[in-house]
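Issue 218. Parser rejects a valid record. Input:
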Amino acid sequence: MKHLNFFTRRILPVIAICAISYFANAQAPASAAKPVAAAPKGAMSYIDMFFKKYKTSPDSAIDYIFATNKLFTNLAQINAVKAKLDSGQAALGKYLGKELISQKSVSPGFVGYTYLAKHENEPIRFTFIFYKPQNEWILYRFNFDDAIDTELFDALKIRK
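Output the parser choked on:
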């Protein structure tokens, strides 16, 4: 009975999502598919370096990403972000890697990326928004949270 409960709670919803996604994509006209815009080189290099630093020191990753914008000078706020991230590190477990969840742009100079940071025990989501006022990309907004499962549960609800 325990295996059936696991199957109905964990596996069956995944199979249903995959099937729905497959059939929806199969029936969509070819013109409906939008090509993903090439990622801005500067913004992606910031993200890559962030996660490289995050692997060994989340604090240095936070310092690095905020240093990309000279307007982020409030050390108290930056330290609060580091403290919030540090407080959950033990529960997360070892960092295992990252996966791109979403990439959006509203213009060639304003882009956002959401990543799933995979840990042994649970994931967290990092959101980076970059702005290019002239020639260089700068961090415009940064956020992280562990509520991605709440959104997934909400997305799985039946809607009429």
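Fixed in the parser; the record now loads. The longest strand covers residues 95-107.
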